[in-house]
Here is the input.
Amino acid sequence: MFVLILALAVGVLAGLLLRIGVPAPLITYLGVAILAALDSCLGGVRAALERTFSDRVFVFGFISNTLMAAFIVFVGERIGVRELYLAAVVAFGVRLFNNLGIVRRLMFQRRGWE
Amino acid sequence: MIIVFGILGLMVAVAFNTTRLTAADVSSRTGDLAAVVAEMETQREELTVQVAAQREELQQLERSAATAAGEQESFGAEVELTRESAGLTDVAGPGVVVTLTDAKVVPPGEDGNRYIIHDFDISAMVNALLAGGAEAVDVNGQRVVATTAIRCAGTTILVNQTRLGAPYVVTAIGDAQKLTTAVQEDLVAGELLGAYRLQYGLDVKLEKKSNLSVPAYTGGLRPQYVSPVEGE
Here is the structure.
């Protein structure tokens, strides 16, 4: 778990130091992709705690979630329903908290706090 | 999994960079451009003063040259006449003053653009006055010369590249009666005085005056591309 937080910190640091950004119109894509990635990562932690973690499922889920999220934003912009990205935001948001709740319970159980 | 978490962190940082950089970029750019415009305008003021001084000097030199060589008196007079008709001298005489002001109120739900004075209104007015035989015209102190452009720049109107704001005062020297008739009969300028004024509440006034003054053109006049055609 500690290693994961460290990896996250290294990523953030690298991004800040590199000072790279995306063109302003694409910020929605990145935002939704981040939510998707966040969801995948939390899902991965949950799977690890449930002892059902699989490298392939995780990496593939991460990539496909991110791409699908970006695709939804793209389609929304093309068909004039720019707010379609909200669908992705809501879906990932709900799953995020769902997963967070499960992870929390699993961790509590493991430590015998419950 | 570690790599994926790293990627997630990277994405978050990139998003952070993007929002921060764009926000900072926009505000600083607006400030920069405003500063550039202000600086350029001061520079132009200074240069205008210089041009005026040098023109004065040139005029004196021309005069002294003309009087030194007595026979060239006619040349001096011709130079003077050319300067006058080119708009390089302050002039005075009878004529009309047209004041154009935006409407005071825009009724709710109406297109505000119809209730303000536009660049094309000014240029129609200037055209009508020139057509009526105006010998010198200025808009808010900007002398209309051969190279004058009247155009729109945001909420202001540019005449001789100088920003003007309402009310716009167009002064024309010429036969007051002829000028008035020319404006009234002009398709656009006449409407400004008549129908538009009544319909939209634009404040357009035309006054005949017996003694008006129109300032000299103060901008640069150095031709870069034109040259006289030889052999006449």
Observations:
- Residues 1-86 of chain B form one domain.
- Chain B has six helices and eight strands.
- Chain B touches chain A through 21 residues (CB under 8 Å).
- Strands of chain B lie at 91-101, 136-139, 142-143, 150-153, 156-159, 162-164, 168-173, 203-214.
